[in-house]
Prior knowledge:
- The complex is a heterodimer of chains A (301) and B (281).
- In chain A, 67% of the residues lie in helices and 2% in strands.
- With 301 residues, chain A is mainly α.
- Chain A has one domain (25-49, 59-300).
- The N and C termini of chain B lie far apart (77 Å).
- Chain B has one domain (16-44, 51-243): 3-Layer(aba) Sandwich (Rossmann fold).
- The longest helix of chain B is centred in the C-terminal third of the chain and has 37 residues, at 244-280.
- At the A-B interface, strand 1, helix 2, helix 5 and helix 13 of A face strand 4, helix 3 and helix 4 of B.
Amino acid sequence: xxxxxxxxxxxxxxxxxxxxxxxxxxxxxxxxxxxxxxxxxxxxxxxxxxxxxxxxxxxxxxxxxxxxxxxxxxxxxxxxxxxxxxxxxxxxxxxxxxxxxxxxxxxxxxxxxxxxxxxxxxxxxxxxxxxxxxxxxxxxxxxxxxxxxxxxxxxxxxxxxxxxxxxxxxxxxxxxxxxxxxxxxxxxxxxxxxxxxxxxxxxxxxxxxxxxxxxxxxxxxxxxxxxxxxxxxxxxxxxxxxxxxxxxxxxxxxxxxxxxxxxxxxxxxxxxxxxxxxxxxxxxxxxxxxxxxxxxxxxxx
Amino acid sequence: xxxxxxxxxxxxxxxxxxxxxxxxxxxxxxxxxxxxxxxxxxxxxxxxxxxxxxxxxxxxxxxxxxxxxxxxxxxxxxxxxxxxxxxxxxxxxxxxxxxxxxxxxxxxxxxxxxxxxxxxxxxxxxxxxxxxxxxxxxxxxxxxxxxxxxxxxxxxxxxxxxxxxxxxxxxxxxxxxxxxxxxxxxxxxxxxxxxxxxxxxxxxxxxxxxxxxxxxxxxxxxxxxxxxxxxxxxxxxxxxxxxxxxxxxxxxxxxxxxxxxxxxxxxxxxxxxxxxxxxxx
Lengths: 301, 281
């Protein structure tokens, strides 16, 4: 028989576990960061496992990452231009620039909702930092977004005059979106353990959020809506929507001026930086919320 | 090492692997999944008093290096809860617990990690879940595969495995990490007879190589033969702790007693029916 040497990095370190902890929020946050850093390999494996699963169970496999946003775009193009009879130059590209990031955000939120609950049997058997689960889910979804570049570039061949150097800003905007989506993922994953109805609510909430965000329209279009003319504060609120900031930024670098008459331009770096800072703060708050609830997971699941 | 504020007969001792004093694990049944969420919400909104349930209470154990503790008791006695606390999966609601050294975390050995991944990938993922460094898991890999003895299935997805193969793989992973403190829950009942013998040999070896072992089992022979101490739990409380033969004897006695009482009750009910039957005819 093979002999193995002790190999836990933490071997021979005494651990003291006593009753309900009185850890301060700051300590919880530091714990969360330590856990993510020390378990980055676990996150990587979970991401790989997730990707492997996706491709394997459908006939067209990963090709769905290409078709999905295109088909969704087609539905909206038919609806908006034929039925609602709105005219916007190069409209397919206009909405594709927001469908792509929204699909990403939506799948992060809906998949993360189940990320902890799905591993209930493992959580009752092994002590491991549960925070890696929503982070791995959110990270795995990046792959779907990157696949979306293929249909995006394909579509842009039809609007070749809109291809500019500003496209290189897309990854920068995506980083901001990633941080924001991680915050959302951590929050919904923990909340769903105690409130399982969240899964049902989230689907509808996401749909509502999509229509309330300037994806199919631009935020300037709201100026002509009566309700917004009367109450200017609503317009300010609409601008605070994180998805509005992201959509406007993506559209600016992919499509161009919202009225369709200007070429792609620099994103509004000020509002992107603001969103990045807000997202980092939100991620910290979500991690504290998660760590606060984590000790009860094994009891409730 | 002394624990601040720790008082009791064992304070200041240094060779223990596990030191538990008056551990209790409490569940609030309002939030249990065994209840519909509607009821939980209602009881919170209506400010009903919490329904507390102690799955384990007043547990005090001291386990030294090289000791092997057998935990026995009827179903629902809190045996698994005890292991979950020692593994760090559950936090005790009261009491103090000191665990010195690396604890093996895998309690139910039939479990896989991911159905879609191959056995080999599951070993890597399992190692990552257990907190091993990747290069360590990779170096353990040949040993794990050899011991699990699942042939070419090692490269096929876990979903194609039989339950015996899963159990063997799980056992191999859990015991390969060679922890300072090994926690085992009913492992001896997994796999076929051949593997049971093999796994028994492995556990004996781990016990002998000066590791602390806590083993939950229904196999009384095992407890008497290989454990140097035993603990009898019933309804979350320690009934007796001591020499395996004495604890097992007490357990068998109490089990027989409980069985006799049940049979007496059943007989009384049966007699009642029998007495009524002729009249009904």
